[in-house]
UniProtKB/TrEMBL annotation:
<dbReference type="GO" id="GO:0003700">
    <property type="term" value="F:DNA-binding transcription factor activity"/>
</dbReference>
<keyword id="KW-0804">Transcription</keyword>
<keyword id="KW-0805">Transcription regulation</keyword>
<dbReference type="GO" id="GO:0000976">
    <property type="term" value="F:transcription cis-regulatory region binding"/>
</dbReference>
<dbReference type="InterPro" id="IPR010982">
    <property type="entry name" value="Lambda_DNA-bd_dom_sf"/>
</dbReference>
<keyword id="KW-0238">DNA-binding</keyword>
<dbReference type="Pfam" id="PF00532">
    <property type="entry name" value="Peripla_BP_1"/>
</dbReference>
<dbReference type="InterPro" id="IPR028082">
    <property type="entry name" value="Peripla_BP_I"/>
</dbReference>
<dbReference type="Pfam" id="PF00356">
    <property type="entry name" value="LacI"/>
</dbReference>
<feature type="domain" description="HTH lacI-type">
    <location>
        <begin position="11"/>
        <end position="65"/>
    </location>
</feature>
<dbReference type="InterPro" id="IPR000843">
    <property type="entry name" value="HTH_LacI"/>
</dbReference>
<dbReference type="InterPro" id="IPR001761">
    <property type="entry name" value="Peripla_BP/Lac1_sug-bd_dom"/>
</dbReference>
<protein>
    <submittedName>
        <fullName>Laci bacterial regulatory protein hth signature</fullName>
    </submittedName>
</protein>
């Protein structure tokens, strides 16, 4: 067995032959789909491959019988409307190329991420599209050891694998600058999980917009959240409990923005008259909610399409493993960031 820099155990063809008690030539013939091997030997070799999670090197895979015409898509939260929209983009692009998609929801749990990575690899998918949860570094390192293409979606982790993201710094800047131009000067930030690159860059854009417009920024203006509706509720409660006299907030996603507005409204605080609100994603509910939510629209469908295109380029070979595509977000202005008088200016 070889142990690589990421401590991933890479079984070799020799390990497979030893466990299956056959020659290396027999293993090679079976993995390259030669018919002249007895079924019971094939069974022995394939169970050894499965047990050792043997990952044929790039050359062996290039010789493999044929693509499975399937790809894995790993997402962290099937209940957040952002991700079904991403799945739609992936699915439509995959079907265009006769590929099937195996969808895996991990609830952002590293153990679930690892389980699904191994599951998909053993199913011999041709590639994996991955949106990690909070603590995905080890799993991304493991993905980087696989001999199949992997594309990261939405969140940067390291720089070994192709990635498709939104320009979240620009998104955070636009959201905050919009509130400033609407005359708000004490703006809170409702954060998502701080470990995520998508959250870090939105926050950086928020801070830069405040500073560029000469407004004060302090840690007390940053409220913890985890991208859920409930955490938006909790953030609004904290705003009130801490006596923070803010006149606006920018939430790192729409679910938290809506949760915060619901709490403020129940507490008798009017949005946008007293506190203006901006979210992020532009989920379908954003336009229907009352007040309709000003938000930063992510090109989520395009993100899914780009990721599939990149994966297929890698499957066909001949391109570098690492590339980064940064898609442009768009500010969508609605009622939740109206003027203090509550009417659009
Ligand atoms: O709403 C879920 C969030 O997780 C989205 O903003 C998406 O960008 C991902 O980071």
């Amino acid at each position: 067995m070889e142990q690589d820099k990421n401590n991933a155990i890479n079984a070799t063809i020799k390990d497979v032959a030893r466990l299956a008690k056959v020659s290396i030539a027999t293993v090679s013939r079976i993995l390259n789909g030669k018919e002249t091997v007895s079924p019971h030997l094939v069974e022995r070799v394939m169970s050894a491959v499965e047990e050792l999670r043997y990952q044929p090197n790039a050359v062996a895979r290039a010789l493999k019988v044929r693509e499975s015409l399937s790809m894995g898509l790993i997402i962290p939260d099937i209940e957040n409307p952002f991700f079904p929209a991403l799945v739609r983009g992936v699915e439509d692009a995959a079907q265009m190329h006769d590929y099937s998609v195996i969808l895996c929801n991990t609830d952002g749990k590293p153990a679930e991420e690892e389980r699904y990575i191994r599951f998909l690899y053993n199913k011999r998918v041709d590639g994996i599209l991955f949106t990690g949860g909070r603590y995905s570094d080890d799993n991304v390192a493991m993905l980087a050891t696989l001999s199949i293409p992997v594309v990261l979606l939405d969140r940067r982790v390291g720089s070994q694998l192709s990635t498709v993201v939104t320009d979240n710094y620009l998104g955070g800047f636009m959201a905050t600058e919009h509130l400033i131009k609407r005359g708000r000067s004490r703006i809170a930030f409702i954060s998502g999980p701080p470990e995520l690159s998508s959250v870090q860059t939105r926050r950086e854009g928020y801070v830069q917009a405040l500073r560029q417009h000469g407004l004060s920024y302090g840690e007390e203006l940053v409220l913890p959240g985890d991208f859920t509706f409930e955490s938006g509720h909790r953030a609004a409660a904290r705003l009130i409990a801490d006596g923070l006299s803010v006149d606006a907030f920018f939430a790192a996603n729409d679910m938290m923005a809506i949760g915060a507005i619901e709490y403020l409204r129940a507490y008798g605080i009017r949005v946008p008259e007293e506190i203006a609100a901006v979210g992020y994603d532009d989920i379908r509910m954003a336009a229907w909610y009352k007040p309709s939510l000003t938000t930063v629209r992510q090109p989520v469908y395009q993100m899914g399409q780009c990721a599939v295109r990149r994966m297929l380029e890698l499957v066909s070979g001949g391109v570098r493993r690492y590339s980064e595509e940064v898609l442009r977000p768009e500010l969508v202005i609605r009622d939740s960031s109206g003027s203090r008088g509550g009417k659009e200016q």
